[in-house]
Design brief:
This protein has three domains: 3-128, Rossmann fold, CATH 3.40.50.620; 130-166 and 203-288, Alpha Horseshoe (Serine Threonine Protein Phosphatase 5, Tetratricopeptide repeat), CATH 1.25.40; 299-463, DNA Cyclobutane Dipyrimidine Photolyase, subunit A, domain 3 (Orthogonal Bundle), CATH 1.10.579.10. The protein has 19 helices and five strands. The termini are far apart. The chain is mostly helical. Helix 3 packs parallel to helix 4 (103-118) and helix 15 packs antiparallel against helix 16. It has a five-stranded parallel beta sheet, with helices on both faces.
């Protein structure tokens, strides 16, 4: 009788789960486990929307497993201690899990694997969170890509030659007897903060409903609508991809099938798939360069003179900068744990180029606040916007927040939704309310964009000049 354990992490689904398939194929009895690691989940008592979403996904995964008479075990502690004990308790000879690429996870998993092998069991770790590992998408000289466009070309050739399609999960074997399903932890928090604007429903079924809705309704205009924050024109699948409630293979295959079936969908589908490849690109950047979590990727931007101005940073966090599109985005983030992607770029540019505050402060605030906070994508996005990263926006291209607001929210619908004090401002002034007679309900701009733009350009030039060639 062969027994196994599957360690669920960022793969909270039963279908097309690469490492879970190994359990289905190799053992006679098994148990699933999720471990609440205090080193990661140290804010469980706070108001983290990401943890609420995570635990909703866990609750629904547990319910699906319970239908098959399989208990989902929830354990608290360090996996490198919990898992060897569980292997001993169950008599398991196999542990499976899907790979994580953050420096912390890689170090932890190395210790887990060593201790499991010392306990006499086998470990199988599989690539699952992205379609292709960075080692599979290389330059002609065998190196890693640092520019997206050639990466995408190689990635797409890889897909054409070796498509990774969803794999139906084998029949899950019976549970190891003697274990009961555990309750998913509850988070003590201010309920009004969480329910004021509802979080997305967690779980695999909800992920597929959202994917169905996107492909049947929004994807046809995705290429045109994706930059308009007042329109529900994006997939909103990022939280589900973050925790693996749906696989990237399922998203890619379903979208390709939809485009092949209906030619009007091709342009929208193509642009959306491009965003999924960006996700793979940033994952590869982090895996190849773990240092990007603590420093700028580009050497010539490591000596930028950033401002240390807590009051400006607090105004940015609160959504009280006096620039409506920036403030609307930050208020959306604080209220929902999510922000439209175009607005993410605008607020990141504003923090780093107008307020001249270190991108790492913004990255940390976003990661703490976002339901879909993913280390690789969050870091990649911030380093792109701040012109410090791989394939970054050129430092001399600086978003004008007023112009961006007028372009992407022309009638002010997005701003009015998130800034009620501007609800009755005429559209003519909605993105520059300081030009009308102020009524004191909304702050004046805390900085002058044109002046700060000049300072930002000078500081980037100075940083580049001070970098000694290696």
């Amino acid at each position: 009788m062969t027994r196994g354990i599957h360690w669920f992490r960022n793969d909270l689904r039963l279908q097309d789960n690469t490492a879970l398939n190994e359990i289905a194929l190799r053992v006679d009895e098994w148990l699933p486990v999720f471990i609440v690691d205090p080193r990661i989940s140290n804010d469980l008592e706070g108001s983290s929307r990401r943890n609420h979403f995570l635990f909703d996904c866990l609750e629904r995964l547990g319910a699906e497993l319970a239908k098959k008479n399989i208990p989902l075990l929830i354990r608290h502690g360090h996996p490198e201690s919990v898992l060897p004990k569980l292997v001993e308790q169950t008599g398991a000879s196999l542990l499976t899990f899907n790979i994580d690429i953050t420096p912390f996870a890689r170090h932890r998993d190395d210790i887990v694997e060593q201790r499991i092998r010392q306990a006499g069991a086998t470990v199988i770790a599989r690539q699952d969170h992205v379609m292709y590992a960075p080692s599979e998408v290389r330059t002609k000289t065998g190196g890693a890509y640092s520019v997206y466009t050639p990466y995408r070309r190689t990635w797409m050739r890889k897909w054409e030659d070796e498509p990774r399609l969803p794999v139906p999960c084998g029949r899950l074997k019976p549970a190891i007897p003697g274990f009961a399903r555990d309750s998913v932890p509850k988070i003590r928090t201010n309920t009004s903060q969480v329910t004021r604007h509802s979080l997305p429903t967690g779980g695999e079924a909800a992920a597929h409903r959202r994917l169905d809705s996107f492909l049947s309704r929004s994807v046809v205009n995705y290429h045109a609508d994706r930059d308009r924050p007042a329109i529900d024109g994006t997939s909103r699948l990022s939280p589900y991809l973050r925790f693996g409630a749906v696989s990237v293979r399922q998203c890619f295959a379903r979208a390709m099938a939809a485009a092949n079936a209906e030619s009007p969908l091709e342009q929208g589908v193509g642009k959306w798939l491009d965003e999924l490849v960006w996700r793979e690109f940033y994952s590869g950047v982090l895996e190849e360069n773990p240092r990007v979590l603590r420093e700028s990727y580009r050497r010539d931007t490591r000596n930028i003179c950033w401002n240390d101005n807590p009051s400006d940073f607090d105004a940015w966090c609160r959504g009280e900068t006096g620039y409506p599109i920036v403030d609307a985005g930050m208020r959306q983030l604080r209220s929902t744990g999510w922000m439209h992607n175009r607005v993410r770029m605008i607020v990141a540019s504003f923090l780093t180029k107008d307020l001249l505050i270190d991108w790492r402060k913004g990255e940390r605030f976003f990661f703490k606040s976002l339901v879909d906070g993913d280390p690789a994508s969050n870091n990649g996005g911030w380093q792109w916007a701040s012109s410090t990263g791989t394939d970054a926006q050129p430092y001399f291209r600086i978003f004008n927040p007023t112009t961006q607001g007028k372009r992407w929210d022309p009638d002010g619908s997005y701003v009015r939704k998130w800034i009620p004090e501007l609800e009755h401002v005429p559209t003519k002034f909605i993105h520059s309310p300081s030009e009308k007679e102020p009524d004191g309900s909304y702050p004046a701009p805390i900085v002058d964009h044109s002046k700060r733009r000049k300072i930002a350009l000078e500081r980037f030039k100075m940083a580049r000049a001070s970098e000694t060639p290696s």
